[in-house]
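Reading group handout, session on sequence-to-structure problems. Before we discuss, look at one worked example. The prompt was deliberately terse, the way you'd type it at a terminal:

> structure DUF2934 domain-containing protein

The input record follows.
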Amino acid sequence: METPPEITFEQIRERAYDLWERNHRPDGLEIEFWLVAERELKAERDKKQAQASADEDDKVSCASSRDDALRS
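And the output record:
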């Protein structure tokens, strides 16, 4: 299984800034927006990785089924 790609400081910073702007730029919530941004990016990465893994499992299953059918 492939290791997940690193989430960069820049990606977190951009997401946190976007969240801050969408929430009308409140004062004093920098850490909260940073943590939410980091959590969102990790969840998106994990979802993509799980989907890629499921897609790979489907390919293997289909190939196995096709091979079984050819042997019959």
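Points for discussion. First: Residues 16 and 36 are 7 Å apart (CA to CA). Second: The radius of gyration is 20 Å.
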